[in-house]
Amino acid sequence: MEEKDINRLEKIWHKVPVWRRQSLIEDIEELGDSDYVLSFENFVLFALNDSDPKVREIAIRSLWDYESREAIKPFINMLENDPVLEVKAAAAGALGKFVYLGEIEEIPQKIFNEIETLLLNKINSSEPLLVRRRALEAMGYSSREEIPALIKTAFQSDNNEWKASALLAMGRSANERWIPQIKSMLESDIPELRYEAVRSAGELEAKTCVPALVKLLDDDDDDITLAALWSLSQIGGKGIREILEKRLEDALTEDEADFIESALENLDFTEDTSRFSLLDYSAEGEGLDDLDDEIFDFDDEDED
Predict the structure, then answer these.
(1) Which of 17, 108, 133, 197 has the highest Cβ tally under 10 A?
(2) How many angstroms separate the CA atoms of 204 and 201, rounded?
(3) With 0-12 CB in 10 A as exposed, 13-18 as middle and 19+ as buried, what is 92?
């Protein structure tokens, strides 16, 4: 939508029933995920100011696939001031996009520093658990020296929600040091931990995790099965194409077949780039035992 169209929409938007606004933004999120030719960027930026928290939360999520610099200030403001927990947490998570862009020098250093400082403060704050977890996940992209210690402490927590966030952050870190921890969680009895471990194994292209990922293709949880298929396409290697093609032959639904076809396309990309290492970071000589365990308390489950 052009700016003039947004201005026209703004004049009548408050007259649209809340249920209709929610339904529209949900449809836009789904369309954005399924068709990358479509762009709803300007509309979703507009929806960040909606009076309904559900609309604001979905609008935040819908901006993940865009690199909208215009979203940075609203996200910071929502994290700091929005009265609704889910919206604050979504804003914290969405800032992870800009941590990544800062790492590759695609946003100004001053703004990058402001985002990282804010997220670190939230991790160490008395904010509700959900906000702190999303802030840690967002900082998974960061190369700041204190981040590995934060991830390690979260992973060692007795709180499985912290463990899940730690696993997600590990996958974003591009740091091979976390592969043993990820591998250990592929056999967890807790579906959420298996799921995050599966995704992170793919993000880190952890070849030692391939046998466990193949076993998880028969997991009782369909989300874990699909995540394992995608992670195998990210890792590649001998026999992976045959596995994916066999799963495509046996697909029970059109949606499943479409997903596997996308995984095969991703495998093509993986194989084309296999001569390059996507993990430039070497953690040689920096064992986990050297990290400080007493960074902050991860066992706080207070959601108040």
Answers:
(1) 197
(2) 5
(3) buried
Q: Which residues neighbour 182 within 8 Å (Cβ) at sequence distance 6 or greater?
A: 167, 170, 171, 197, 200, 201, 204, 206, 209
Q: Tens of pLDDT along 17-75? A: 999 999 999 999 988 877 778 888 999 999 999 999 999 999 999 998 888 899 999 99
Q: Residue 89: CA atoms inside 13 Å, Cβ hemisphere, count?
A: 14
How far is the C-alpha of 264 from the C-alpha of 260, rounded, in Å? 6
Q: How many CA atoms lie within 13 A of 124 on its CB side?
A: 13
Q: What is the pTM of this model?
A: 0.85
Query: pLDDT tens, 237-265?
Result: 989 999 999 999 988 889 889 999 999 99
Element (H, E) at 223: helix 222-235
Lowest mean pLDDT of 83-87, 262-266, 271-275, 290-294, name the range: 290-294
End-to-end CA distance of the chain: give it in Å, rounded.
39
Token pair for residue 257?
Answer: 């077949």
User: Residue ranges per domain, the chain?
Assistant: 1-66, 166-275
Which pair of structure tokens corresponds to residue 258? Answer: 């479409």
The crossing angle, in degrees rounded to 10, of helices 129-138 and 109-123 is 140
Q: How far, rounded to the nearest angstrom, does the alpha carbon of residue 189 sit from its chain's CA centroid?
A: 22
* DSSP 8-state assignment for residue 247: H
Domain with residues 166-275, CATH architecture: Alpha Horseshoe (1.25)
Q: Which residues contact 209 (CB under 8 A, 6 or more apart)?
A: 179, 182, 183, 186, 201, 231, 235
Phi-psi region of 144 (alpha: psi -120 to 50; beta: other; left: phi over 0): beta
